[in-house]
Amino acid sequence: MAWLVWRQHRTAFLLLLAMAAVATAGLAWLAQDASSAVAAAEEAKASPGAAAALDAAYQRLDLLGLALAGLPVIIGVFIGAPLFAGDLETGTAKFVGVQSYGRWNWVATKLGMAAVFAAVAALSTGIAMKALWTPLVNHMAVNADFTSTGGFDTTGPVAVALAVLGLLIGAAAGLLMRRTLPAMVVTFVALLAVKTVWSQLRMMFATTVTKTTGGGRFGEGDSPKVPDNAVEIDTSYVTGDGSLRGWSTCTDAGDSSACLRRHGVVGWSKEYLPFSHMDAMQWAATGALAGLILLTVGVLVYAARGALR
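and the corresponding structure tokens:
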């Protein structure tokens, strides 16, 4: 059975692996280049050329992250959607029930093999992407926001989970639509919706750090310093009872210091997310994605029962 599935879908699988291999090699080379640029910029007497090379590395980072974030969509549209829709559209799925291996064995083999290739592609590119992000984040995270789509969704276990989710959504759409092109369109729209919602939810899994000052020290120079490898989440004033006031409080006042004192402000509160917390954040997010994957599997099983009667 595995051999038949391989022969039927090997072109798509091999193209995915080839694309992932090229992307991984390119990212690995750029990671080495980024590390060299950071090392040159951190030298005691950095040259203007070193600063320019580092700026170029940061600019590439955003573009590469956004491009690689499209991998789950590519997998869902071009591998997941045609996985079953092609057989249902041509009528070859009708012969599955009369074979010795059975319908559910056929479904499981197809999904399992496709999931392996999707996971391998996401894992290899994710490792290389993490190697590219790491030196740039450690040097200056303000220019390399690792909580963004390009940093968070393309590395670690989240990248693999999103790739598998994309595949399953595509496969479920193929079983529901039973035609390849409509299934590809539905998959594309569904995955764009999922990624849009996901971008609003990922910070729920962050474990941030908060630093405060007190004693009536709320000047600009009194604000706590955020580590270079951390992303700033929020900056506020803190009052004597621990409540927060927005940093724009009293900005229009003639005497801002007196105004802040009237509001009970005694210092600053700064919330940030260190890069060292990213792994825990990603595993927590992967747990949530696993729940969504199980839900999608349930929809897929329901769709398969209807399509393979």
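(Above: one complete record from the training split.) The radius of gyration is 25 Å.
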